[in-house]
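Researcher: Structure prediction, please.
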Amino acid sequence: MRLVFAGTPAPAAPSLRLLAASDHDIVAVVTRRDAPLGRKRVLTPSPVAAAAEELGLPVIRADRLDADVTAEIAELRPDLGVIVAYGGLVREPLLSTPTHGWINLHFSLLPRWRGAAPVQHALIAGDAATGASVFQLVPELDAGDVFGEFAMDTPADATAGELLATLAEDGARLLADVVSGIAAGTAVATPQEGEPTYAAKLGDDDGRIRWNEPAAAVLGRIRGVTPEPGAHTTIDGARMKVLAVTAAPADAPALAPGELALHAKQVVAGTASAPIVLETVQPAGKGAMRAADWWRGLRDTPVAGS
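Model: Predicted structure follows.
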């Protein structure tokens, strides 16, 4: 089939690479425009744009799928549109432009966690299982019939970034199988079942650590917002990023929520239940460091605030 692929971040690149290696013809890759990154704000291609150029595929850079983009895609006469985390909505008439419409690889077990940040919300909520789904794109958000999905146990200590990287690789294989099924006329989509939940894009406040929550919830939030938007707390009124955490050993002292202590050369922090261990932190104006090294540089015992 003639495919149009739309995607932007790194988790979309495995799907692009796998489809490019298939018998199908990718006639265009749609991705968001180059964005300024780093302290010097250097214009940088999206990971999908970089992969497409490496593969020798034509690229359409657009932040919105407007009338001009629709006309450009229509001229290519695509059989199927494939979207993986593009970062924008596909509306009519573009939705109906490919012969078979558009399919979407989404990193959740639909209808749970429709929306922009499914992996992050799954970790914050403490979901025991996660996975990916490939569904037919429809005007309603992530509500189309599902062609296929896979489920997996949520890793106990994975961050959102790590879990998303795993789902991206496994999801690419699922997506490729669905595309082949549509080409062969054997793919069957079934309606979603269950009550939908929604995963809105995370903001800075989602990364604020709530020390008065139980340890499992604190760990889930920190891992769910890592690497973006990032977990943070305040120490004596100054903001500090928390980059890596683990559960505390059974002999760790009981601490009040937000109370910090050094135990067996590890910095432990109190929650509403058991304490947790701060492994890596980044104080304001400094680079990332081991929490124990940060602790040794302090004059007074700190207390973490919300």
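Model: The chain has a mean pLDDT of 95.
Researcher: Thanks, that helps.
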